[in-house]
Amino acid sequence: MTKVFDVFRLALKDIRSYWRSLATPIIGVAIVILIFTSMMAAADGLRATFSSAGVDNILVLEEGSATPWSSVLARNMSEELEEIQNVDVVSEMVTGFTLDENNRFNLIRGVDVDTYENVTNVKVLEGRSLNINDTIALTSRIMVGQYLADEKDLEVGEYYKITLFHGLENETEDEVTLEKYKFQVVGIFATDTMQDSEMWMPAFKAREVLEMENNETSYFVVKPNDPSNIDQVIQDIEASIDGIDAVKESNVWKSMTDMLDQFLVIMDLIVITTVLAAVMGILNVMINLIDERRHEIAILKAIGFENSSVLLLFMMEVILVGFLGGLIGSFGAIIIFRVIGFTVSSAGFTFKAVLTTRTIISAILLSTGIGGLAGLYPVIKTIRIKPVDVLRT
């Protein structure tokens, strides 16, 4: 144990002595760890955003619809749903995407102002909820999710303007029309799901914005009067109404999470590529450094250091290089995510990246492994150094 501790102290001393040469690989590892923690935090944020919501609710979608946004149903279907036994609340939802003047997506959700609070986990953070008065107001009124409010720097009482592009599917530019909408923000809400990047408005206004017919809606949210009856209610709905799919709301989020996992494979490939780049960087530096220190290694062997001790010394050095890079990168990640905050916006979704203790520990272990892997070949080269040949020259 004493021998290992002495070698460790010598490794620390060498790192201080050769810090100019080792600074580059340490910074390289730190950058890799920043990339790694960013992707892990983004992935954790996505998973949290797509987590189960409304576990006791049923979504009634157009048959074959992959997502609620691709579903279109007749509004009068709500009457049939309300007649089904053990159904407590039926709430229509109008949802879809629009492009703004910067070609960025907006997620719009039209809600039944009388029932939507009964079928969502909405919590009003500032301002108020939508109500019946908002359906007759001259100024279009909306609630915005907390992520969207943060991204657009919106406050209650302010106006949010978007320019919608209609006719983008047409081939000629002359057939593309612009329509401007001005919304007053009456509330900022949170649901702890992907819905926090949406703007909510009365259903009739969403139909106008999304160019839907007055007798159409996207889907229905059905709340059973007893959660234990949810499977039976689903069977009754599908038996009573043709052309629909009735699914648990939690299962819809789960299917989105499964699609997310496929996307995360790409992120993993990016991480692997950056790790390999870091390994090659440390490898090159350590090979050059060991060549420069041939006389030092020869002297160590000449005064009694065994090959195992020399191997241990240089292996500790490269592991410390990785470890220090991991500490620097992790500390930088903590500052970015915990102090400054970090949100991600893509395809209309805005979500907050979540940096966890597990990610930090994984990052430091990864950086230490990078150092150890990169140092294997250079360190093994020290065994080939013969004191007699080196000192003679």
Quick gist of this model?
The protein has 393 residues and is of the alpha+beta class.
Task: Tell me what the structure shows.
This protein is of the alpha+beta class and 393 residues long. The protein folds into two domains: 2-50 and 256-392, no CATH class; 64-242, no CATH class. The chain contains twelve helices and 14 strands. The strands form three sheets. Strands 1, 3, 4, 5, 6, 7, 8, 9, 11 and 12 form a ten-stranded mixed beta sheet that branches. A hairpin with a 5-residue loop joins strand 3 and strand 4 (105-111). Helix 2 (19-49) packs antiparallel against helix 8 (249-292) and helix 2 runs antiparallel to helix 11. The longest helix has 44 residues, at 249-292. The protein starts with a helix and ends with a helix.
> Into which percentage range does the β-strand content fall?
15-25%
Per DSSP, the total helix count is 12
List low-pLDDT spans. Answer: 167-177
Q: What gap, in angstroms, lies between the N and C termini?
A: 36 Å
Biggest sheet character: 10 strands, mixed
Helix and strand content put the structural class at alpha+beta
Order of helices and strands: HHEEHEEHEEHEEEHEEHEHHHEEHH
Average pLDDT number:
80
Number of domains: 2
Total count of strands: 14
